[in-house]
Request: fold
Amino acid sequence: MDTMRERFISSTTRLLDEDPRLALVLADISADGFRPAARAHPSRVINVGIREQLMIGVGGGLALTGLRPVVHTFASFLVERPFEQVKLDFGHQGVGGVLVSAGASYDWPAGGFTHMAPGDVALLDTLDGWTVHVPGHPDEAEALLRRATPGDDRVYVRLSLQSNEHGRPVDGARFLPAREGRDGVVVAVGPMLDHVLAATEGMDVTVLYATTVRPFDASAVRRAIGHGPADVVIVEPYLAGTSTAAVNEALADVPHRVLGLGVARRELRRYGRMEEHLAAHGLDPAGLRDRIARFLGAGVSR
Reply:
């Protein structure tokens, strides 16, 4: 199976052929994969080199001319380093574009903390009007990218090496039911779904699958909890607690408890492998099962 990043390259190459309005802005990352696209569309595939603030500014400028920019690099260099440009060159100027990241929270631990971005979605939450997609499979990444490119809005597509085994029919809006139960609701975001399903095996809980987290599908959560008091766990592949405020807002008139699981704030300085980071943050099936069971007061089958 190809990775989400590989699927992004092949899909965007085709989209550049199909849509003369589309433009691509790079900062060296993935430039090799886009060489054929650059040869075919030299005026619409722009590599600014390792100048991430310029990359965002060029994307905003292209949008002002009527083009639809797709801007791509590692998440830490796409959202964190040029955040002022994201805020001003897209948001303040009132133009749209599609930011597509790679690297996620710790896809390449050997690159060190400079290449890790667990806070990217929380940072974008400080801005108005961003749609945030977190696909959990390459098929979903392609589907969400194809939904994002025709518009004029501001979209962030967060790609990762971590992937669920199977893709699902995502629509860029709704949370999908993955399991039904009575003792609580667990929202699994993007590539966390398989781990959540393994962690909650034998528990009487509803599992919702979220690949579009902004706007937050409040109606799906409300339907899942029914009419009584509710316990909700949200498992996200980035900073823990990023979406707890969204859950609280969705259930403001309902007695409820919320547990936000994700990447801890502490920095892990022994970089290791991605799987070791998942376990260290309690995001592997064993860690999730323990914390979800304790929160819900559920009996864990042995």
In short: The mean pLDDT is 96. DSSP finds twelve helices and twelve strands in the chain. The CA atoms of residues 137 and 166 lie 7 Å apart.
